[in-house]
Every structure is written in structure tokens, then in C-alpha cells.
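Re: that chain you flagged

S.,

Sorry for the slow reply, it's been a week of failed gels. I finally had a moment to sit down with the sequence you sent. For the record, here it is as I used it:
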Amino acid sequence: MTDNSTTTPGASAALLPTILCVDDEPNILSALKRLFRGKGWQVLSAEGGQAALALLETQTVDLVISDMRMPEMDGAQFLAQVRVRWPDTVRLLLTGHSDIDAIIDAINRGEIYRYITKPWDDNDIVLIVRQALERQALEHEKKRLEALTTRQNEELKALNASLEAKVEARTTELRIANESLQDANERLKSSFVTSIKVFSTLMEMRGGNLAGHSRRVADLARRMATKLKLDSKLVQDIFVAGLLHEIGKVGFADELLNTPVAMMKPEQLDAYRKHTVQAEQLLLPLAELRAASDIITAQFERFDGSGFPAQLAGPNIPIGTRILSLASDYDNMQIGTLAHSRLKPEEAKILIIHSSGQRYDPEVVSAFLEVLSGVARQAAGKESFAEMTVNACDLKAGMVLARDLITPSGLLMLSAEHVLDQRMIGKIITFEKSGGMELTAYIRVASAS
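Prediction finished late last night. Pasting the C-alpha cells below so you have them in one place:
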């Protein structure tokens, strides 16, 4: 026999938690229904396990309260079947005797949530039922959110695929022009340093003397920082600052960009000095580049305090800036950016030494001289592998680049550590032929030591 009790007026029974009370004594069922009436729950009843199982097959039930001692099928047997067939239904055991073994059996077989002894306290049993239903509601919400997250992730993947298709359709011409770089860019998207290298080529694409300047400065600055035994995070920030230290010039007119600093008119010099501030503004949205941005901003300060904009002196100038300023000036002297005439490396080195303690930090100058003499290469761990030069036509799949692959104009094609495959080698050869140029790659080989 089954029975439905009344529900809260105006409430939809389909939306209310449903409780099933199972007992072979009608007076117990009546007492439970009276107790739960008005609590915001839909209450069903069944006089025995078989009747309850039949009801469960036709209706969704959130919680079952079953008596332990019933004829034909006791509570332990009934709740065990509920656990197997309707595992999400919360199970409570109502017992009026102290048979510990029977209770343990019910707990083990039916995995009940709680057991309640007869006679019960009305407040206690209502509280137990409410807590059980709240716990079940939380479990349902957790599953709903997990399913929602899974579905949204799938939708996001589909959206990303759609967006990528639209971007590809709108940038067909650019993809064709940069086909030789496409595979490399896809492989290197997750590489922070390589992305910065590509970003730094924005200035170098303007041509002139800038090609390769940022990478040379970044490499020299990193080797100097390593020689000074700075921590790895700071060395990385200095390297990134070297790659981006000219990015503020991206808005310069060609005339200003191609005019040596010594030959600039006052208004040109004023505009030129602002490129560090412009670089800071460009990099401001990128929190990962904040340290590199600070290094770039102060690169016109001098060790003796006569620089600008803040007239910082000595250790008040960030160590990264002191390194970057020397590395940048050394390369600029050789490419004709500072003066009309270009200096030879030895001549530039002599000027750096003469400016020690004035423009440059003497400690940084010492590290610079040791790097030039080759002492820093071993300290940087570069002896773990050797390298050889290979023409494009002789490249083999599986070869690893020991250095960045650079075009004759100084633009980056592939980053160091890239593992070549046959498809990329074909693109390199095609790019070489179509551009009428010769490309030489530096490939890692096992060290002889």
C-alpha cells in the first residue's frame, strides 16, 4: 500500500524534495507524515519493502526512511536494494531495538546516512532529514556544476576553433607571406622568451642599422649578468629587457630613427630621450614584463648621477639597467647609432673602459671585459654542447638549433632549441630560394668532452 501526503499550498510537488517512509505499522507511517507535514517536503509512504520498491520504480525519491523490522523484507535488505538501484537516494534506518549486529549489517549493506532509534525525538528526526536533504542538494549542485563546466569547456573549445578559422580567413595574405614562420610560431607560442624575441623584431623590420641589434644586446647583457652571478630570474628579466629596450622607438619617423644621436637637433634629441618612457607605457599592461620595463625606463641614467630623468647614481640605478646601458652602447657604437662613424669592437671597448665610473658601473665594466675574453661562456654552462654550421640543403629532421636562425637582413626565423622536422626544413629551403639568399644554421652536436 502506498500513500501521498499533502504538500505546502501553492508549491509544485515536482520541485519539492520527496521523502518515502517505509514501515509495516500504519500508525508509524501516520505519525511520520504528520511530523513532516508543512515542512516543505512531499511525503510518500509504503507498508513494506516490496511496495516501496514498486513505488520507487515509478517516482523519483530523494530520501527513504525505512523501519528495520518488517516481514518478508527487513530494512537492511530493502535499503541494500535501494543503494544498488537508486544510489543517489539518501537512506535512513529507523530501528526500535538494540541489535547492534543488525544495525551494522544495515549500515554496511545499505550504506545508510544515519540511523534513528524509536521512540524518536520529533525535533531530532526533522533536523536529521533536513540535513540529509541539504547534503543531497549540495551533491546534486556539485554534479550540475561539474556537468556545466564540462559543457562550457567543450563550447569554449568549439568557439576557439571557430575564432581561429575566422582569423585564418582574414589573414590569408599575411600567412602566405610568413608561411616559413607559421609552423615555428605555432610551436613556440608557449615559449615566453621566443615570443619576446618575435616582439622585439618590430623595430628591426624598419631596416637600417637596427637588424639584430636587440638580440646582440640581450645576449651580451645576459652573459654579463651571469658573470656577475645574479639570480636566474633577474638574468631572465635583463635578457628580456635587452630584447625590448628599443621598442619605444616604434613610433619614430624614419628621419629620427636614422639620425645618429650625436647629430640630432635639440627637438630630435628631446623626442629620442622619450623612447624609454614610451616603452614603459607600451609594456605597462603586461605584468610579466614589469621588471624588464623598469630596467628599460632607467637606461639613460649614468653611474655618476649626471643622467636623466631622475639623476640616479651608483647602486640606486637598478643593476639590470647598469648592465643593459653598457651592452646597448657597445653595440650602438659599432652600428653607427650614437655617432656618424662606426667603431670597431676594440675601439668601442676602449671607450667603455674610459667611461668606467662615469657612464658605467666599474663592476659591470669588469664583467663586460671578462665576457669579451670568453671567461663568461664557461660560467654560463655553454660547454655542455658543441655546434656546427649546416647549409639549408643539408639540414636533417631531428636536428636541434644551437642558435636563433636569422635571415641575412637580421630578422628571426626560428628560435634556438627548435627541433627541425622535414616539413620545416622544406619551408626553410623554399624561403631561401624565393628570397635569393643563403641561410646557415647552427646545429647542436654532442660535446667531444
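What I noticed first: The CA atoms of residues 123 and 195 lie 65 Å apart.

Talk soon,
D.
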